[in-house]
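Q: How would the structure tokens look for this protein?
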Amino acid sequence: MPPTSILITGSSSGLGLAFLRHYYSLSPSPKIYTLDISPPPSDSPKVMHHFSFDISDPDLPDTLISYFSSTGAGDAPPELVIHSAGIRGLEPDIIIRSGRTEDVRDAETWDALTSATMTRTFEVNCVGTMNLLYALGMLVSEHEHAPLTKVKVVIMGSRMGSLSLNNSSNIKGGAGGGYAYRASKAALNAVVRSFVIDVPELNIVIVHPGRVETRLVRDKVGIEGEGTVVKEEGALQVDEVVSGGEERGLVGLIERLGEEDSGRFVDRWGKDIPW
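A: Here is the predicted structure in token form.
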């Protein structure tokens, strides 16, 4: 069954925007809340409320708690939360100097990474996830209108956060690289594993959506609207990943996930990924 209410982060582009459009298309559509540093595009569906925040903003948890608490808007916490906000941690300036533009891997090697990029990637991918889960944890443990069933939280993770898979025998062409992204997603995994234990009222699943053609892997270098497009080989179209295929993509997977799946790390077909 589709949820009656949903909060989508990273809703202004990529997977988040595709989820927004899908759930709005349902009849009846759920109450939809969105969260992103900028509002969804002007041609996007209207939502109940948009939280205009960077996911790593320290003021975000209190804002969410206030809005969804009985002293705020009075709305119960959403039944479903889809956390799509994230960044890849690329160094696009390296591509400009090298002239190599065929793949994002050129922009995330050990000799390209700066401390500023590493820190920012951790802020968004790990601290941002902690912000969101903290707010949800406070809401489900204290809200007088908290739902009888667990709040389902689906976090868009990555198999690049798997320590087990980061070796040359598991991945064609070898693994390695992706330092900021790998480290931040591995840290995200650690945060989620602890939350599953400490806040059992949340049903949290990490999902690797696959290589998706989004801003995460389409960094424009230089002036807005100009520059070099950095692509990842084999990236899929976002709508195909969200709601396409025989099993209806990520939407179908999310509907199938139950309370017994809390704490799992899976791909878009629901198969477990080793930590």
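The first helix runs from residue 14 to 25.

The first strand starts at residue 5 and ends at 9.

Upvote if useful.
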